[in-house]
Design brief:
The complex is a heterodimer of chains A (139) and B (378). With 139 residues, chain A is mainly α. Chain A is extended and about 75 Å long. Chain B is mostly helical and 378 residues long. Chain B has 15 helices and no strands. Classes of the chains: A mainly alpha (139), B mainly alpha (378). The interface between A and B is large, with 84 and 114 residues.
Chain lengths: 139, 378
């Protein structure tokens, strides 16, 4: 039989991975998803304890977690949109003016050796032929 | 512990030392794998991270099979559990290491789906459906929408870097090691079971084995007599086992002679009695009686701990429970949604109202923040 402690282990691992992701990643949305993953780890614990004790209270707690996560998602989405409108990026580092006094600014010193991927081709407006090299035929 | 013994003790599969190999393997290999695979400006070959990740996976499986002291039979339940928890952990790792936020979002959807499988295994079908609809259906889709809206120029340089990876991975995996050691300490009953087995052997034996009994010599009369090493070891392990069971005792009704506190008291008395006289007096009847008491009480305490004691001093409605018949794992109500609804609207009515208010306030707040009317009027 799979016992309570096995589920607690899985919940602990999910929580830890979410914590690491929240601390290291710099994209606002990925940080938010990592926080949600920590909530998932906690939810597994609650439901496992609910089964362990043979009553429904753990499941009720998980329902409230879902409700609060939904509120959080709505507010966070609205905040991200308005932040994105101001700075045109989702990187949290551009908001480091809000940091505590006396803490140094973090600057990216390591050069970026990986070239970012090529952007997707942008199609012209309808009615215009896109510029393209002349086709060569070998007849 | 001498320093030379340290590596051997780290490898020994005991619960006496906190950091044994079942804890160390997943934590160290997992930390290496996550640190290696996190987005970084330097291009790292994928190979090392993959190997460390595989070792970490094997370590987690070893912890689940060996470290918690429960044998897992190859049932359908075990197969489903390992499938879902394995995919949850795998996609969680992929999610935090993938530099592309859209792929991270899709990995998070997979984590949610795997978690829902675990919910189903834990007899919570309503929560499974609700989580799929709300997380995978609503939250993921809206966030993918924002990612698509904002990342039209391709991945940015911020996604290819991570902030303080060494410190963050260190902190996270130290936390994980603490949690795993705690789980092992609390839920590994192998040491208690060993004491129970030894006590039952002693209780059933016709004659107490000679290595427990202090030999009687006429010259010892009037002197302080020590116990034999075997008897000393037995009493020490019994005391340790009882101490372990006393940690975080579930509240039980204390009126019957088999209640929690009565059992603890009886076992304590029996151990003290054995330590004081019977092993020295060669009193076989007393030894058998005391060891039988220890075995019975420890078995009872262990069963209560494994089955999950119920707090009697908390007044809650009976709607969320069914009558439990016999020992073993507790049964859940068969009509999951009906029981959940009854509990929600009896015991947790105020919380339901507050959650509704919170949702309303969040909706209003989201509309106000996202509308951007203030920016236009400026």
């Amino acid at each position: 039989m799979i016992s309570l402690s096995h589920y607690l282990t899985v919940g602990a691992i999910l929580f830890t991975l979410g914590l690491i992701g929240f601390l290291t990643r710099r994209n606002l949305i990925v940080m938010f998803l990592c926080a949600e993953m920590m909530l998932q780890g906690v939810a597994i614990n609650f439901v496992a304890f609910s089964k362990h004790h043979g009553n429904m209270h753990g499941q009720v707690f998980t329902m409230f977690i879902i409700a609060v996560a939904a509120c959080e998602a709505g507010i966070a989405l609205a905040l991200f949109l308005s932040l994105y409108r101001r700075k045109r990026t989702l990187d949290v580092s551009v908001w480091q003016d809000l940091r505590e006094q006396g803490i140094d600014e973090t600057v990216d010193t390591e050069p970026l050796l990986i070239t970012p991927e090529e952007p997707d081709p942008v199609l012209p407006k309808a009615g215009h032929l896109p510029k393209r090299p002349l086709e060569e035929t070998h007849v | 512990m001498r320093f030379a013994e340290a590596p051997l003790i780290l490898l020994a599969d005991t619960t006496e030392n906190a950091l044994n190999w079942t804890v160390l393997t997943p934590v160290v290999a997992g930390a290496l794998a996550i640190w290696y695979l996190l987005p970084s400006p330097q291009k790292r070959p994928l190979f090392g991270g993959l190997i460390a990740g595989l070792v970490a996976f094997a370590g987690v499986a070893a912890f689940l099979f060996q470290g918690l002291g429960h044998t897992i039979p190859a049932t359908i339940e075990a197969i489903i559990f390992f499938g879902f928890s394995g995919s949850a952990i795998l996609f969680a790792g992929l999610m935090i290491t993938n530099p592309n936020p859209a792929r991270s979002g899709l990995c998070f959807a997979m984590v949610v789906l795997s978690t829902c499988g675990l919910f189903l295994l834990l007899a919570a079908p309503f929560l499974m459906a609700a989580t799929i609809i709300i997380y995978a259906g609503a939250i993921i889709v809206t966030f993918l929408f924002v990612i698509m809206l904002s990342n039209q120029a391709g991945p940015s340089s911020a996604d290819l870097r991570s902030r303080e990876p060494v410190l963050a991975v260190g902190v996270g995996f130290i936390l994980l090691a603490t949690l795993l050691v705690g789980l092992q300490r609390v839920y590994d009953y192998r040491s208690v079971q060993a004491v129970i087995d030894e006590s039952e052997l002693l209780a059933k034996a016709e004659k107490t084995p000679a290595e427990y009994l202090t030999p009687r010599k006429d010259s010892d009369l009037g002197k302080q007599v020590d116990l034999t090493p075997k008897a000393k070891a037995y009493i020490a392990t019994a005391k340790a086992a009882l101490q372990k069971m006393k940690l975080a005792a579930p509240e039980q009704t204390g009126d019957s002679d088999l209640g929690w506190h009565a059992s603890v008291k009886a076992a304590e008395n029996a151990i003290a009695d054995l330590e004081r006289t019977p092993f020295k007096e060669n009193d076989v009847e007393s030894v058998r009686e005391d060891t039988a008491t220890i075995a019975r009480c420890l078995t009872y305490l262990k069963n209560v701990r494994e089955a999950g004691g119920v707090a009697d001093d908390v007044t809650l409605s009976p709607y969320g429970e069914v009558k439990q018949v016999g020992d073993g794992p507790k049964k859940m109500p068969a009509a999951n949604i009906a029981a959940l609804g009854r509990v929600l609207f009896t015991d947790h009515l105020l919380a339901v109202e507050l959650a509704g208010t919170l949702l309303l306030v969040a909706t209003v707040g989201a509309i106000v923040i996202a509308s951007g009317r203030r920016e236009k009027s400026r």
